Amino acid sequence: MVHWTDHERHAITTLWAKVNVEEVGAQALVRLLVVYPWTQRYFASFGNISNAAAIAGNAKVHAHGKTVLKSVGDAIAHMDDLSHAFTKLSKFHSETLHVDPDNFKHFGDCLSIVLAATFGTAYTPDVHAAWQKMIAVIISALSKQYH
Amino acid sequence: MSLTATDKAHVKAIWSKAGGKAEEIGAEALGRMLEVFPQTKTYFSHYADLSVKSTQVRTHGKKIIDAITSAVNHIDEITGTLSSLSTLHANTLRVDPANFKLLSHTILVVLALYFPADFTPEVHLAVDKFLARVSHVLTDKYR
């Protein structure tokens, strides 16, 4: 069980309310595939992701970015019991998708950067810290069922 | 993961904007590192104020950004340019190698924050590689 201060909860939920899930999700996933190109190994079925321009314009990448960000929203809704809430999703990543959990951290870093680019000075150090903690909790929950 | 000519061009372009705001960017990157990754505070127990606004954090943040600027300006000779800083980190500062990734991350966040239009995915990639190279040089003499 994670301990959240009122300030952290407020910082996370307030910012989340302003997030355009489709936009931010797409941008974060585009960055993952461009900045950490080895992650493209998981997306062979997405068509042309051979260069930055192709990745940025790829409709499947955009759609999947939205899917991933929606799960971040679910995580926030279950932030007090995320390990339990994400049991199935964790098993799915481990047993079906076979994703190396190190990649969760790469995506988390990209998400933090996209939030900074989107919200600018509103992404204050304390809001940034609360979000990095949320991201760390999500990564831990997603990694939990790996064996 | 060596720097391509394109990477070097991207780094120089974004840094031409960042270098001029060295104190601001340095303070934000360092201050955010201390807040987001509290274990890093252990290296600054002698600072009275660890916030982004602190004079000590601003001064030190600027020092860090200025050092990175010199690496950008001598991007083909990073090892030589940062040699004495590398010795300092190995013998005196002895910052655990894991921490370089943390400061590199907050530098990227701050660049995205200040220059959202310029900090494209390709520029992000280039700067990430460049900072990894700088970190490698700075920890090179550790053992």
Automatic annotation (TrEMBL), chain A:
PROSITE patterns: GLOBIN. Keywords: Heme, Iron, Metal-binding, Oxygen transport, Transport. Residues 3-147 form the Globin domain. The keyword Transport applies. The keyword Heme applies. PANTHER family: HEMOGLOBIN FAMILY MEMBER (PTHR11442), HEMOGLOBIN SUBUNIT EPSILON (PTHR11442:SF7). Belongs to the globin family. This is Hemoglobin subunit beta-2-like. The lineage of its organism: Eukaryota, Metazoa, Chordata, Craniata, Vertebrata.
From TrEMBL, chain B:
The keyword Zinc does not apply. Residues 2-143 form the Globin domain. InterPro entries: Globin, Globin-like_sf, Globin/Proto, Hemoglobin_a-typ, Hemoglobin_oxygen_transport, Hemoglobin_pi. PROSITE patterns: GLOBIN. CDD domains: Hb-alpha-like. This is Hemoglobin subunit alpha. It comes from the Eukaryota. Keywords: Heme, Iron, Metal-binding, Oxygen transport, Transport. Belongs to the globin family. The lineage of its organism: Eukaryota, Metazoa, Chordata, Craniata, Vertebrata. The keyword Cytoplasm does not apply.
